[in-house]
Fold this protein.
Amino acid sequence: MNKPLQRITQTIPVSCNKDCGAGCPLLAHVRAGRIIKITNNPAGTPYMKGCSKGYQAMQAAYAPDRLLKPMIRTGPRGSGDFKTVSWDEALDHAASGLRLIKETYGRDSIIFLGGSGSCRGALHNTSSLTNRFLNMLGSNVKLYGNYSSSASDFVTPFVFGTLEVGIDAGTLQHSELIILWGANIMDTRFGCEYPTRIREAANKGVPVIVIDPRKSNTVKLPHAQWVQIRPGTDTAMMAAVLYELIGNDQVDYPYLEKYCIGFNRVKNYILGSDDNRPKTPEWAEQICGTPAGIIKKLAEMYGNAKPAALIPGLSIQRNIGGEEAMRMAMVLQAATGNIGKMGGASGGCLWDGLPVPECGEMDTADIPGDLFIPEYRWPDAILEGKEGGHPVDIKAIYNVGGNYLSQGSDINKNIRAFNKVEFSVCHEQFMTPTAKHCDVILPASFFLEREDILFPGMNYLFYSGKAIDPPDSVKDDYDIFCELSDRLGFPDKYSEGKTSSQWIEQFIAESEIADVEQFKQTGVYSGKDQMRIGLSDFFADPLKNPLKTPSGKIELASENYAKTGFPAIPTYRGMADEDKYPLRMITPSSLHRINSSYCNIQWFKDRETQALWMNISDAEKRGITNGEVVSVWNSCGKIRIPASVSEDIMPGVVCLIQGFWPDIDDDGTDRAGAANMLTSTEPTEPCMGSRTHSVTVEVGLAKSD
Ligand SMILES: Nc1nc2c(c(=O)[nH]1)N[C@H]1C(S)=C(S)[C@@H](COP(=O)(O)OP(=O)(O)OC[C@H]3O[C@@H](n4cnc5c(=O)[nH]c(N)nc54)[C@H](O)[C@@H]3O)O[C@H]1N2
Ligand SMILES: Nc1nc2c(c(=O)[nH]1)N[C@H]1C(S)=C(S)[C@@H](COP(=O)(O)OP(=O)(O)OC[C@H]3O[C@@H](n4cnc5c(=O)[nH]c(N)nc54)[C@H](O)[C@@H]3O)O[C@H]1N2
Ligand SMILES: [Mo]
């Protein structure tokens, strides 16, 4: 006899479409149309493991505060006063608003904010779908760079001539030493394989050195060693490590000769031949707050271990001079001969650092243009416009897959920018602070509610099936854009007459996947080689396969880089003059959120309380005890939250985990602990990217209300 339908559990392969390297292969267990649990997908390798965000994703899909109906704003921006309307009314309103802006101010007056919401999909990709739409509308103004990796993306081609400098995570099984330099891999994930691979190495007894101002969860790995460092001073410590390697004769000169140019110029800087200031561990101790003896020990371990993988987090480049920290990490891996070797690494960003299997994806229909604004400075561009030297006057915001009133630096400035534009549209799943400031909100589906192909940034493709139906009145971003395109006069251009599933079929047909049925059934397609190391052709034969740098070699000194106005070699820069408050603040990510996503979801909220991490000595100086409510302030803003006082963070540094939506009271104080109340939009140069870890603050006991 057949089982009644409600007792049959189906399993459907799904894959988190999130910005943490994403693409963990998972299985949704569905009974009577509802997900009852999500587990790892056994079709993946045992190294592919999800995290709480994937296993509990249904908590977000079924959250009571999901946006279910289109809305139009009725009260002042930010008030949260909206009326629920029909889809027709909302889409008509959005289309006519955009048309009016375009006709009144020209096509280049609309800016796209967001994109990271679901940024790994071939089709349901908040970035490419929105870019395609705005390009077809004729809007030409583009944001360049991103909050994540601007400095790294900027410098890597100067050194290697390419961004493809990563490794497959499996190659770490050959490492004799892993240095996680500002990388909290166990929480701040770079895809689904790194945590298990690094844990495996640690379990085997491979030393894992974690260089971080705070005791992150990664420090809790077996045999892990925590090296404390003041934020933003990584270049200085790296220079001192190199000083030691040179002095201990642990530099691989034949390797440098064969594969690199410019080491002698770096060496002159390190030895102080140019500026009379040798970059000794004692010199670095003053800057980094790390005892010289520890720096010497680190250099000794590094010089002796072959091969060694120095893996930088993106945190080290989200700093003033973050460009140089990335370049110096590459110099270290070159000096020790660890680039291009199994078990080594390039010293560059691991993320998305190698080609992925061939597969079709949504075309953004780019149009040539020259109106570029650095993403980090979008609110400045809106507030200051052409008069302030920006290329355009922005009059409208199109927000999809972003929550920049929480995540963009300087929330107060961002609110002013949102209040200045004449029109704003948002596709969202939740009433985020950003959605609250928009004129039209269109409720969007969740990744579990639609079919897609995922690019997890490894040599894999994942298929993510539609596990559940979206709530009745919720649409996919793709369908929303199709309907708007109809209204704005390019009906067939956007969709090319295809439904979502027809696009997916097409992308798979364009892919290298031979067995489509198996791909859809298992959810996993593996590229051929899972043990790749970036630049392997070059290392196999540097003369036959030169790099795309001017010299054809790895450029540790780059004349092209010098044209940006900064030295050809990486040097330590220091903090900016305006950063005058006594404590440095870092704002890293949480295991239980992806940026600010899920910060409103009860299951995730229950697992983390926001508090300001503070060292005991800094707290004592200010008369603060553990758990007391403190004010944290600088020239950008002010927050009030409890202090968490311990030795888990080094003296002189405080830490506020990022990704809490601000809750700003009438006197302008945030009570949620939103990190970006205190960050500034002053970028690191020349990349014009984020410097959210180069922030100073003061802390004091909050006066009771
Ligand atoms: N769980 C989870 N995973 C994520 C994300 C998330 O929100 N949640 N976000 C994803 C995204 S979008 C990105 S771009 C990446 C971000 O990746 P990262 O930038 O690497 O992440 P962070 O958590 O900011 O920082 C990593 C560690 O560096 C430390 N740190 C901070 N400043 C410094 C510094 O100046 N020097 C040194 N040596 N250490 C420092 C922090 O304390 C933290 O433990 O992570 C991705 N992965
Ligand atoms: N202080 C500080 N600030 C930071 C950082 C830091 O380290 N410190 N990290 C920075 C980094 S690296 C990044 S990448 C940014 C990220 O900042 P954001 O791009 O703003 O990322 P989220 O906060 O995750 O917001 C994504 C939004 O997209 C929505 N969403 C998810 N999926 C979909 C979908 O399919 N369709 C639609 N329409 N919406 C969807 C979610 O509900 C969520 O509100 O934050 C940056 N901000
Ligand atoms: Mo990011």
Residues 87-105 form the longest helix (19 residues). DSSP finds 24 helices and 27 strands in the chain. The domain at 583-701 is CATH 2.40.40.20 (Barwin-like endoglucanases).
